[in-house]
Write a structure and sequence with these properties.
9 strands; 302 residues; disordered C terminus; globular; 12 helices; Arc Repressor Mutant, subunit A; alpha+beta; Jelly Rolls; 3 domains
């Protein structure tokens, strides 16, 4: 899916801090014309690129090239990572010498993720630089809720100082590329079994009510084998992944302009009961939904 990041002409890109505890990301496979950069601060994040799974831990720097299909499929409950996006026009103007020519060419292979594990000193420098560029951005809750660029059609990324943002993004691009050249490789790559790939595709197509027996049969595997392979290769149980998709769907339903109630959104998202939703919500955010939803409720609809 080609995603439109809806960035204003005032901005050469964007930067935001993604955190598991603030919201569950929309777990869709997508691509965009912009270059994306992630810096992992805490926990771990897992992507599927091509037919391979990559898991990245703290101090990891990773690059997702323009038009490269990628799928953030799982992240730890404490995950915290920066997401930076650079427009092609910024790359063209900033990368004038041979040292940065690879940034213009894109990924060498479709199923690869360029990445590095940074030494502590370099990691701290980039982290502090990103913190500085973030000054003037929208509220972190808003940016997390909208995955930075806005799943809602009326959302628009904003920064109070576009000139500072653009200058900071240019500096970050060059700084991170230099760090990439001196960092060591990081990130475990695993070729996904066909039954795992098919299960992910079926669930991501919205078939969240399908039973494990039917899912396994469709994927050409036994229930035990599919469950075992999914957990081994993705790093989380299949049931956990399914519930993450349901929770992501809940947020979409809850924030619809039709003013859905919590109960309506819960059942529309595929949860079998409010008790099941409550358990999944509490496991994800560390507390029940009442207080959390009170703050997130209509502010996302205004």
């Amino acid at each position: 899916m080609l995603a439109d990041l809806k960035l204003s002409s005032r901005y050469d890109g964007m930067l935001y801090l993604a955190e598991s505890v603030r919201n569950v990301p929309k777990l869709d496979s997508h691509r965009h014309v912009e270059l994306e950069l992630n810096l992992v601060l805490r926990g771990w994040i897992t992507y599927i690129v091509g037919e391979r799974r990559f898991t990245f831990h703290p101090r990891s720097l990773l690059w997702l090239y323009p038009e490269q299909e990628h799928h953030l499929i799982a992240l730890s409950p404490d995950a915290k990572f920066y997401v930076a996006v650079f427009k092609p026009s910024l790359i063209a103007s900033a990368c004038q010498t041979p040292a940065y020519s690879s940034l213009k060419r894109g990924a060498s292979q479709p199923g690869e993720v360029l990445h590095a594990r940074l030494i502590p000193e370099t990691f701290d420098l980039i982290r502090r630089s990103m913190e500085s560029v973030m000054q003037g951005s929208l509220d972190p809750d808003v940016l997390n809720r909208e995955a930075g660029f806005g799943w809602r059609s009326d959302f628009a990324y904003e920064h109070s100082d576009p000139d500072a943002l653009n200058a900071g993004l240019r500096y970050l691009l060059l700084l991170c590329w230099r760090a990439q050249q001196t960092g060591r490789l990081s990130g475990e790559a695993v070729a996904l079994h066909r039954c795992v790939r098919r299960a992910i595709r079926i669930l991501n197509d919205g078939n969240l009510q399908v039973g494990l027996d039917e899912l396994a049969k469709t994927c050409g595997a036994s229930e035990a084998y599919l469950s075992r392979m999914f957990r081994k290769q993705i790093g989380i149980p299949l049931s956990h992944y399914r519930n993450t998709l349901r929770l992501s769907q809940f947020w979409e339903e809850f924030r619809q302009p039709e003013q859905r109630t919590v109960a309506e959104a819960v059942y529309a998202a595929g949860f079998g009961s409010y008790a099941q939703f409550y358990k999944v919500f509490t496991q994800t955010y560390g507390h029940g939904p009442r207080a959390f939803l009170a703050g997130a409720d209509r502010s996302s609809r205004d």
